[in-house]
Records
---
Amino acid sequence: MYRSIVWNLGLATLACMAGCSTAPADLDLSLTRTSVDKKFVVALQPPATPAAINQIHAWKIKLASPAGQPVAHAHIAVDGGMPQHGHGLPTQPQVTQELEDGVYLLEGMKFSMTGWWEIKLAIQTPQASDTVTFNTMVTTPVAAR
């Protein structure tokens, strides 16, 4: 009886782990997206090398109008998490500065495990506000260098 319980728990654990590392087959992993109400075109630029798990890293956000003009002086709030786990990001990443017109520095990003992550941005300017969600797959841990 005990052996059967242990066996079933082991199988359940493996099934959960497999489910966490897979995402829907039609998941859009593009790094450039139009916001929900089509007010902005947003591009995410991850670190040059894959982000290490359990390491803090920075991304860049390029924000433009639908016509392609850089959007300056925006306020961008960041949220996200793992939809399959039902938890948020392990840190509270923030846009800390505008590097140039339409290019913003997002600091404090961290992924605590492999799997499907969402990065959600809420964008506000004096002219408009909108949201956009990016999907990313963290597939293998990369050691910090």
Note: Confidence is low (pLDDT under 50) at residues 4-19.
---
Amino acid sequence: MKNPDAAPVLEVHLSIQCDIYGRRLRVDFLHKLRDEAKYPDLDTLVAQIGRDVDNAKHYLNTHHA
């Protein structure tokens, strides 16, 4: 059950080839991929993350080309 008083959380996946630890980043929210979900095991979670990455790339390629 979700806590109505909890602060919203945004999870961001970055696909970059440089060290950004300790640096500030700006994140622009463009599109919600899906609602929060729980997964029965790590393999299912990893598979969903892969689908999320594919869906995000598809969105960016079709809406922000």
Note: The two ends are 38 Å apart (CA to CA).
---
Amino acid sequence: MKMFLFGCLTAVTLTVIGTWTYLELGFAVMRSDENPPAWESWLMSSAVHASVRRRAPKLPSPFPATDDRLIAGGKLYLDDCVGCHGEPGKPPSDFGATFYPRVPQFPQVGTQYTEAEVFWIAKHGIRRTGMYPQGPSYSDDKLWSLAAFITRANNLPSTVKDRIQPEAK
């Protein structure tokens, strides 16, 4: 048993020293104009998803996802989010592709987050990404509308799509 514990302690110690050396000697690539290795993308994506899942409200939205609520969320999305996350019915955002990590294009790919998780992300942001917190700018009610829209952005009813479009001048 002593040898097993000694082996575990040695493995952990060598892992910490190896990781520290890898980072300290500059082997980790930090450029954002090059795709990261798959293991890094998986690790960071997993960490973000786990953190959001842990901190987001566990209850469903306090509001039903009516057409009016989706339209309100869609108008907010078109005012504030479309530049990075893409516009419904249009090609992906070129600007969103310049960020690292890449910005999800909700109208094309949807989201893997629940409505409560999208609400939490919109309210608090995600550190070290372009997703800054919207909580200081918008009420929870508006952020829930936005979350309802985003979780359905790639599968919106045509009545909602028609009514969120800006009026022609």
Note: The helical segments are 2-24, 38-55, 67-80, 82-85, 106-109, 115-124, 140-151, 158-164.
